[in-house]
Hints:
This protein is an alpha+beta fold. Helices cover 35% and strands 8% of the residues. It is built from seven helices and five strands, in the order H-H-H-H-H-E-H-E-H-E-E-E. The structure holds zinc ion (ZN).
Amino acid sequence: MSHLIGRPLPRLAAIFLLFAAMLAATLTTQFVTAPKAHADGCYTWSRTLSEGAVGADVEQLQIRIAGYPGYGKHLAIDRDFGPATKAALVLFQKAYGLPATGIADGTTYNKIYALQDDDCTPIHFTYAELDDGCGGSGYDGGPLSAADTKLNALKTMWQLEAMRHAMGDQPLNISSGFRSIPCNRSVGGASDSQHLYGRAADLVGSHSLCALVKQARYHGFGGILGPGFSGHNDHAHLDIRTSNYWSAPSCGI
Ligand code: ZN
């Protein structure tokens, strides 16, 4: 055992340790960088948007707030910032505790940047999980091009993200998303199924099926089918068609 145990630390050593601690604190302050506020791996808005604005950047905003149209409504993705876009933006802002201005500014964009991945999908959903009708086909094999099908899947995911947040940020588990034509046939899907176009998601788990179909009515889903509707006692089918076709008799819908 060392004969130094129990003796006071030599004064020179104490001064050295104090100096080292101060240097470490200085380095931490100088070299830990803050996250970028106005750039994003997916998409970066370059101007504030308010009612009357028109453009591709409005369309990008509309895709991300389409899950907030109000009960039974659907937000048109039309590049035109009208009253419905403003109303949806206000609901989005309220959902995340932001000032409810109806104007998309840096505060709004930073929240959106935090909610999206570099491929523009919302953080809690991926293209892969929306493409699992029969094990995934890379969005090929449907009636639309893979690019158009993926865009529909992206819109579906943003509406799901809104619904997920409204239901306490609990996972929404997807049991079937995009289906190629052969896949849809093999699972007995309707010949004009929304799954063929990347516009649909079947959900299971976490929440009750009735809770899912009821909540979906607030997030822009036109197709809502659940318990009591033929073939839908074991999942909730949601799709983003823009007319309402709702049926879940066991849930009172
Ligand atoms: Zn379905």
